[in-house]
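Example record used in the benchmark description.
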Amino acid sequence: MKVGDKAEVTRTFSARDLHDYGELSGHIIKDDYVPEPLVGALFSYLLGMELPGMGAMYLKQQTHFVNKALIGEALTAQVEITRLRPKLHLADLETSCRRVDGQLIATGRALVYVGDVKPQPANGIDQFPGRS
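Model output (structure tokens):
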């Protein structure tokens, strides 16, 4: 793991996804917009499964939504490591979600504890020495 590492996922939410979300959450979906928690879930997926990955503990997320996402449009969420704090086993990440045309839907920051994640050496230098 190193500063500048990125991961992304593209997802299209369907009317069925919104129906299921409404059933689970108790919210009534009245329009054709994807609820913000579903957009935010893309970041959760990336942090837990891709970068840093399994074993990472999600400590904090700050998200600012600047546009609404429509049902049926492809959204690409991305996370990028902006800072590593090896002594604390923390990674700071920038988060963003965009439409296919590049228009920003949401931007923000995340903080994760990476104590249980085996890092990938950057140029032969382990960013989190002393862990196996």
